[in-house]
C-alpha cells in the first residue's frame, strides 16, 4: 500500500458543490467507480479531520476513515454508479455506516457483502401515531415511560414476554410480519405501512445456523441495547402540511411513539456466520478486495445466495420484533389511558429498514437494471408514484424515519425523484456517531447527562448505566446537520420534526 | 314483478296482470305479439290472437318455442321472459333515437354528470351513480356515501411525469389519481381479507413472568 501525506490524499477529493464531494479513482487501488459524499460544513470538518488523523505517520488500529471506506467499496466487483456516502457517515466494519452501494445482479462477478448490510440486519425505525396531544401525556409521562419499560424488555440479555417455541421461531423467520398478523399481534394496516410489507419472500430459515436460532429465540420482542430505543415523542414542527396529513399528523404537539430496534443477537450471528463462509468463498472465486473486512461472495453463487436467504430471515426476525414491540406499546398506552389502541388511533405511520440489501430496479445510464442495493446506515427513500411504496404515500413519496439520539429530535422525511437519480433512492439514517463508545465514557459524566435530560423535560428509563454516556447527544453528530444536508441536496425532503418527552433504552 | 316494464311498454292494464290467470295471459300475450314482438307475419298471427279457441294453450307453447323462450316451469316465468323480450325489441329500436338521446342528456343534467359523446356511456355513468348513491340504503343514510373531508388541490399534484401539453397533463393527473383510488380500494379489500382470517387464527399472548430486563 502506498503511503501518502494528507495533502496528497486531498488531491483525490474534490468539492463539487456546497454539499457534495467527489472521490476520484486512484484514492484507493482498483476503484471501479467514483465515490461521492454529501456533507455540510460541520460534517465535512469531522470527516476530513478523521482522514487527517489517519494520514499521520504511525497511526494504527481502529477502522479506516469513512472516506477511505467509501473508496474501498467503490473497488468491489460489479459495483455500478457510485459508492455513496450519506451525511451521517462514520467508519464501520468494512463498509462505513452511512454508505450505500449498488451491484449489477446480471454481472456474474458482482458481489454481496455482509459488511455492506451490517451486523444488526434490518435494524430500523417504526413510527406509531396517536390522537393524543402533549397536554394529555405530560402529566402521566413518568408512569407511561415506566409502563413502556415494564412491557418492553430492554438491555443486553433481556428476554421477551411473548411466549415463543422453536417452531414459532421457524415460522416467524419465514413469514416475517405475516406471522405477527396471523397470531393477532398486529393490525392488517400495519403490514400495509411497512417496507417490503414486513416480509422478505426469499427468507430461508434452513440457511440459518442453529447457533443463531438459539440466540434469537428468547430475544424476540425485546428492544436490545446500544443505540436502540423506544421513545414517546411529540410533533415539534411540520414542514410539509399535506404530506404530514397523509400520515395522520395534523398539528404540533401530537404524540407519536418511535421504536428503533433490529434483529438482536440473531442478526449478529447470521452476519458472523456469513463472514466466515465468505472468507472461504473469496479464495474459491478469486476475489480480491482492499480490506479484509469487505469479505464478499458473488451474488449468483451459492455462498452469496445463502447469505441473502439467511439475511432475509434475519430481516423477518427484526420485523416480527418491531411488531411485537408495537403490540406491547399499544398495550402500555391502552392501560394508561384506559382506552383501546383503536380509539387512540395508534396506527403505524411507517416502518423503515436502514441495514439491509435488497434487489431493486433502477435506471443506470438511462437503462433499467436489476441491482442488489446495499444500504448500511442508510434508509430507502423512494419518490412519489414508486410502485414499492404504500398507496397512501403515492403522492407524498415514501416516509423516511430518521431516529435522533437520546434527547435530540427525530425527523420524518419523504423520498424524492432527485434521490432516486442520485443515490439509488437512499438517504441518511440518523445522527451517526462522532465519538467512539470508549471516548464517550471517558469524556462525559453520568450525572451530568442525566441532569441535562431532566432539564429538557425528558423522562428516561435506562437498563445499563454506561449507555447514558455512550448514547449522550454529545457522542453523536448533530442530527439537524445531517437532515438539513439531505434536504439541501434534495435526496429527501423534511416533513415532520419530532421531539422526545420520554426515552426507554437498553 | 313486471308492472313497471309493462308500463314502459304502455300496456293499458299494466298494474292488473296476474300471470296465473289464463285469461290475463291470453290477453297480454296476444297484445305483445301484435304490438311489440311481431314474430309472425300478420297473416300467420291468427291462432295466437284467437284467445277464445280451445287450442290456445297449445298454440302458446308452440309460440314460445318459436320465439326461443327457454323451458320454464311456471307460467309466470314464461310471461316474464316474453315481457323482457318485448322490452328488448322495443328499446333496441329506440336506443339510437333522438328522443332517447335527449332523455339521457336530461337525466345526466339532473344528476350533474358530465356527458360523453356516446350517450350510452353517459347512461352507464348515470346508472352507476344511481346504484351507488341513490340506492335505498344510501338515501336513508346519506352520510354513508357522501365523502367528507378536506378539499384537496388535485391539480397541484405531481402525476409522476410531465407532459408539455397542459390539457394532456391535466388528463394524466386525473388518471393517476383515479389509479391511486383503485389501488386504495384493492388494499382495503386485502386488509378486510386479512382481518377476516385473523378472526380464526389470532390468539395473542403475553406472559410477564417470562420477561427479564438487562443482564
TrEMBL record, chain A:
Molecular function GO labels: GTP binding; metal ion binding; RNA ligase (ATP) activity; RNA ligase (GTP) activity
Residues noted as binding Mn(2+) 2 in the record, renumbered to the chain: 123, 260, 354
InterPro entries hit by this protein: RtcB (IPR001233), RtcB-like_sf (IPR036025), RtcB_euk (IPR027513)
GO annotation, biological process: tRNA splicing, via endonucleolytic cleavage and ligation
Alphabetical UniProt keywords: GTP-binding, Ligase, Manganese, Metal-binding, Nucleotide-binding, tRNA processing
Protein name in the entry: RNA-splicing ligase RtcB homolog
Positions annotated to bind GMP: 227-231, 354-355, 403-406, 410, 429-432, 505
GO CC list: nucleus; tRNA-splicing ligase complex
Function: Catalytic subunit of the tRNA-splicing ligase complex that acts by directly joining spliced tRNA halves to mature-sized tRNAs by incorporating the precursor-derived splice junction phosphate into the mature tRNA as a canonical 3',5'-phosphodiester. May act as an RNA ligase with broad substrate specificity, and may function toward other RNAs.
Note: Ligation probably proceeds through 3 nucleotidyl transfer steps, with 2',3'-cyclic phosphate termini being hydrolyzed to 3'-P termini in a step that precedes 3'-P activation with GMP. In the first nucleotidyl transfer step, RTCB reacts with GTP to form a covalent RTCB-histidine-GMP intermediate with release of PPi; in the second step, the GMP moiety is transferred to the RNA 3'-P; in the third step, the 5'-OH from the opposite RNA strand attacks the activated 3'-P to form a 3',5'-phosphodiester bond and release GMP.
Lineage: Eukaryota, Metazoa, Ecdysozoa, Arthropoda, Hexapoda
Record's keyword annotation contains Nucleotide-binding: yes
Reactions the enzyme catalyzes: a 3'-end 2',3'-cyclophospho-ribonucleotide-RNA + a 5'-end dephospho-ribonucleoside-RNA + GTP + H2O = a ribonucleotidyl-ribonucleotide-RNA + GMP + diphosphate + H(+); a 3'-end 3'-phospho-ribonucleotide-RNA + a 5'-end dephospho-ribonucleoside-RNA + GTP = a ribonucleotidyl-ribonucleotide-RNA + GMP + diphosphate
SUPFAM superfamilies tied to this protein: Hypothetical protein PH1602
Residue positions of the active site: 429
Binding-site positions, Mn(2+) 1: 120, 123, 228
Cofactor binding summary note: Binds 2 manganese ions per subunit.
Enzyme Commission identifier(s): 6.5.1.8
Subunit structure: Catalytic component of the tRNA-splicing ligase complex.
Top-level division of the source organism's lineage: Eukaryota
Cofactor(s) of this protein: Mn(2+)
Family (UniProt): Belongs to the RtcB family.
UniProtKB/TrEMBL annotation, chain B:
InterPro entries attached to this UniProt entry: RTRAF (IPR019265)
Pfam family, one: RLL
Highest taxon above the source species: Eukaryota
PANTHER family in UniProt: CLE (PTHR15924)
Name the UniProt record assigns to this protein: RNA transcription, translation and transport factor protein
